[in-house]
Amino acid sequence: MDTHDHYHDGRRVEDQRLITGHGKYAADWTVPGQLYGHFVRADHAHAEVVSVHTQRALTAPGVKGVYTGADAVAAGYVRAAHGLGGAGKNGMKARALDRPVLAHGKVRFVGEAVALVVADSAGAAADAAELVEVEYRVLQAIVDPEQALAPGAPLLDDAVPDNLVYECETGSEAAVAEAIKNAAHVTRLRVDCTRVTPSPMEPRACLVAYDPANESYRFNVVMQGVTTQRKMLSSWTGVPEDKLIYEAYDVGGGFGQRTPAYPEYAALMIAAKALGKPVKWVSTRVESFLTDNHGRGNIADGELAMDKDGRFVAFRLNWIADMGAYLSPGSAGHIRNTTMCLTGVYHIPALYALFRVPLTNTTPMGSYRGAGRPDIAYVVERFVDQAALEIGMDRADLRRRNFIPPQAFPYKTPTGSTYENADFPGVLSKALALADYSGFAARRAQSAKNGKLRGIGISTVIETLRRG
């Protein structure tokens, strides 16, 4: 059934095709003569790679080639793009590590690809991958971002002292310190935005074909946009963008996790060019958990200061943004978007935030589900709730008292963001009425009589139009 012939009344046109099994996702692409790849992955979070023995795998049935970090280095596929390009605190530049698309010399997180086995069937490639012998010298791993920044912590690389990849600040530290000193009340809090892993319905998959006639590569790959991923992959490999050709159809879930170029895609390029045949790889669910860019991983502690009337006068944050073992192309969003939304929806005259980015022996972070925007909204709202509790004011009333007033728009924040027109008090009033906020106490009392617990929460969010 061609849904385009049957739906012309404004309803969604893709559903019938997808629910009847006629979708075409990355794993569904096949081309004549294609081979199949399977990755050998690190089972240590931190270790030196002493040797990688591939001879047994090379002689296994159906195997056409085995590629290692030496091949990645020979190709020059060793440095990924990242977004932390600006000058940080005291002019600091990001200390980005090289990341060969197949690990070379060292592995820094469980799941990092060490070798790629290519065979004439997916099963043969998986079987032969078990024959690749990797000798490791295990090193002490550090997985907690605060511990990574502590004095004496084991280093992921000598080129990154104190495991501190990047440090930057925004706002006025002096203005905040003065406001906090003179405040009637200061709420202090530590908020942990825990690390999450994406788990889309469709695991990552990639088919790469090399055309020697024009030295181009054709990709059938899970993605959210050709332009961004192509630019990232070109930066990683040095292959001109016009030589990277993409073709996609359906995508089973995105949310930022599909945006970047991943090392596996470049490793498949090496194999496809060497073997002269297309090479296809489909991730397992376990590989997805281990290697798809994670999200969140932010820890914030600080102070929210108020005057005697409950009006906010200053907000200070010490923000640790865990980026995992390597900086990924989506690294910048966790700081840029957070900075842009640092006030939330509130008028706060004095702001200051210090951002520190550590390396840890964990899966790299990327732009997934908001890239810092939900994180700062959560942090700000937790501070507001805690402040209301401490001063004995209703949470809705404290928010109303501190909203940016409608007449103040367009509103420029102390960190330089400009908010377009909004009516925060009006929106909250509508939400409270729809939720019957005033009737909550009676509902909770009735629940208590029935042996049940009932709660209610309020949260406000401001969204930035600049993605990252």
CATH architecture of the domain at 161-192 and 296-442: 2-Layer Sandwich
Radius of gyration: 26 Å
- Major sheet details: 7 strands, mixed
Distance between the termini: 38 Å
Oligomer state of the chains in this structure: single chain
Brief write-up:
This protein is α+β, with helices and mostly antiparallel strands and 468 residues long.
Secondary-structure topology with pairs:
Layout: H1 15-19, E1 35-41, E2 47-53, H2 55-58, E3 63-68, H3 69-75, E4 106-107, E5 113-119, H4 122-129, E6 133-138, H5 145-148, E7 164-171, H6 173-181, E8 185-193, E9 205-211, E10 216-221, H7 226-237, E11 244-246, H8 263-275, E12 279-282, H9 285-291, E13 298-306, E14 312-321, H10 333-340, E15 350-358, H11 373-391, H12 395-402, E16 411-412, E17 418-419, H13 424-434, H14 440-449
Parallel strand pairs: 1-12, 10-11, 14-15
Antiparallel strand pairs: 1-5, 2-4, 2-6, 3-5, 7-15, 8-13, 9-10, 9-12, 13-14, 16-17
